[in-house]
User: Fold this.
Amino acid sequence: MSEYDYDLFVIGGGSGGVRAARIAATHGARVGIAEEYRYGGTCVIRGCVPKKLFVYASKFSEEFEDAEGFGWSVGERSFSWEKLIAAKDQEITRLEGLYRRNLERTNVEVHDSRAVIEDPHTVRLLSTGQTVSSKYILVAVGASPNVDNSVPGMEHVITSNEAFHMAELPSKIIVAGGGYIAVEFAGIFNGLGVDTTLIYRGEEILRGFDMDLRTTVRQEMEKKGIKVILGDTFSSIEKQSDGSLIGHTKGGKTLEAGKIMFAIGRNPHTKDLGLEKAGVETDRIGAIKVSDDSRTNVESIYAVGDVTNRANLTPVAIREGHAFADTVFGNKPWSVDHSLIATAVFSQPEMGTVGLTQEQALERTPNLDIYKSSFRPMKHTLSGRDEKMLMKMIVDADTQKVLGVHVVGPDAGELAQILGVTLQMGATKADFDRTIAVHPTAAEELVTMREPSEQLRALARS
Assistant:
């Protein structure tokens, strides 16, 4: 008889926690899992999945317009926010059911409750007050939207959580933030016919991405009618008698809207989790400090996913959860390499990226060759839409190894996935050059860029 109720207890039913629970159970572990809201976590319930469905919905307005250039006459059309919400909710319910069934199939005991840590081997379920013991505890509670509570009137704003459940679509909205969530929602609202403004404190949106791509995405967003305000942020927000909001900015602007949405980042969801009782160390924003194998400073407690603030992406959390379970319960130790992660931003236009930005490469590599191509996608030669596509490749001039590839335009996210494979294999510029193009496609530009648009050399920069 074991001295513990479980071999593993997982706190958090998102993608990382569920993967860890399932894999550990297939290795023979007795596993319990607790989730305080809905299984599937941020990504499935109120993140990537519903957001991508909203992106699809928002693109139809342009598709209808573009169709005329190809001979189609599109008649009267209208949009129902209520129908979109209902369809989205139905799909999310279906996916949550899959998550639950997959856990049950692997004999993971599911608890619908918030769980908090009492000590290195004990968890308390708040819905019943029951305590359970476990040899190992895995924290996978993710992160939650951050708001600036120093701004008067913050109680009137919404975050991405509430954006998925609004009773009606406002005629005008202001999105505060410049990261991928803010940029994606600005595109969504604009595509659905909402008068949209994006306000961001920085000098350019999408901090951390390649500057050429940041500028291109912002310029294309402005072409689509999104008003972008840079170098400014809210100082106060007032609610009017009719329910509308007025935002005052530090730069002296007065902005009126039906809704103001804050998307200024996410913080690890560790408050009141009991980490201090067990002696688990966190950083200044509450992220759990972990080693490469996801272990905290407490031997029996691990953490994966956004709660560790390493690379806050769903596929990364899944990999971390899988690696943890294989290592601790499967006698197959391995860890996740966070150094090369392909990712997509479902902005409009879309962005796909893998590897180093030009700015990052300059810090690490003395000599670079930069290849860039900006062009009008073939589709828009007939649609007449004024939209450019950008492809950029960063190459180590000494070794010819491709250090980064960045794309803005249709299906950029799909391209990023296969580009991630090529860079993971250590592809060189010569590998791209000898690959025969697929014609006519936008992607053929990646294998037909022969001459660098810019040659950066250490001696010239010194």
